[in-house]
Amino acid sequence: MRESQLSRLERAHASIESRVGAHCEIAIMLGSGLGQIGEAVEDAVRIPYAEIADFPVSTAPGHRGELIFGMLHGRRVAVMQGRLHLYEGWSPRDIALAVYLLKRLGATTLIVTNAAGGLNPDYRAGEVMLIEDHLNFTGLNPLVSVNDEAIGLRFPDMSRAYDPDLLRSASQAAGRAEVPVRHGIYAGVLGPSLETSAERRFLRGSGADAVGMSTVMEVIAAAHAGLPVLGISAITNQATGGPDQAVDTVEAVLANAVRCGEKIAPLLCELLPALPSR
Ligand code: HPA
After folding, report:
1. Is 115 in the pocket of ligand 1 (CB under 6 A)?
2. Which of 197, 237, 259 to mutate to test the pocket of ligand 1 (most atoms within 8 A of CB)?
3. Structural domain boundaries in the chain
4. Closest alpha carbon to 117 in 242, 15, 228, 12
5. Of the residues 56, 234, 241, 262, which has the maximum number of CB atoms within 10 A of its CB?
């Protein structure tokens, strides 16, 4: 039988508990190229992932691999600067561990950000999409194994995986920040190769507006742990798979993620103070 997530979680938590200070309220996971948002955290305590027992260490380009505790826009936050991806070889359960740890550290809201290709032909690189729901095309699930009843239910409900109240608050915050946002469906794929043009047309036909290589494992783990989620996608490239489909480069994706980060930062500035204390 596999080792329970609970014992890994307890080891990870015990290894950093004394360094963290007060509990965080809001956990933020920064996607590819969005790491600059972590630089705004005040009174920051930075813990490299390598110093957290049992924790995976991110290797993806544009990811630093630090858990940052501190204050952001008046709220106590834990920011994961450096995302863990299935394509790096981490298992779905490794990725879920990060979510459980953030909950154990006090988080009552999880904000996940990611870089994504725009499947919706109306979307342009540099735009921001609030995630309404997802399609998990990875074929994987972090809850496959013995269920840890102390963490959550065997069959967690996913019908409101992206919390409708958080989505509404984020939409209002975007309005106040004068940041135009799209609302759409995120398709999660395994990567690391990008999708073929036929795959992109297929994903669009399935109802997705954006495609990326992260997020769905974390959101399933958050649903398992009863942690409400807000998802924000940085649209870093057009991914329609149409006749005019451009060749994608990691340089262009990361450059556009930085442009999106310049919109997501003011959105968070409006949103964080407006989030309820739970
Ligand atoms: N596909 C998958 N993941 C991505 C993309 C894409 O086009 N852009 C950024 N992340």
Report:
1. yes
2. 237
3. 5-274
4. 242
5. 234
Q: Is the dihedral of CA 11, 17, 19, 24 positive or negative?
A: positive
Which atom of ligand 1 is least distant from the CA of 213?
A: 3
Name which residue sits closest to atom 9 of ligand 1, judged by CA.
116
CA distances from 111 to 32, 142, 176, 201, 233 (A): 14, 19, 19, 28, 11
* pLDDT of 178 above 80: yes
CB 275 within 8 A of CB 48: no
Task: Please give the full DSSP string across 30-83, using - where no structure is assigned.
Answer: E-TT-GGGGGG-EEEEEEEGGGSTT-----STT---EEEEEEETTEEEEEEES-
Q: Taking the CA of residue 68 as centre, how many other CA atoms within 13 Å lie in the half-sphere pointing to its CB?
A: 24
Which tokens belong to 43? 């009174």
pLDDT at position 40 over 80: yes
Q: Is the pLDDT of residue 59 over 80?
A: no
Instruction: Give the right CATH number for 5-274 from 2.40.110.10, 3.40.630.30, 1.10.275.10, 3.40.50.1580.
Output: 3.40.50.1580
pLDDT tens string 72-121 = 999 999 999 988 999 999 999 999 999 999 999 999 999 999 999 999 99
Give 34's pLDDT tier (boundaries 50, 70, 90).
Answer: confident
Ligand 1 close to Cβ of residue 213 (< 6 A): yes
Atom of ligand 1 nearest to the CA of 239: 7
Q: Are 73 and 272 in contact (CB under 8 A)?
A: yes
Q: Token pair for residue 124?
A: 């342009």
Residue in this structure with the two tokens 């981490």, named with its chain if needed: 90
Q: Would you state the structure tokens that stand for residue 230, as one six-digit string?
A: 């807000």
Residue type, 145: S
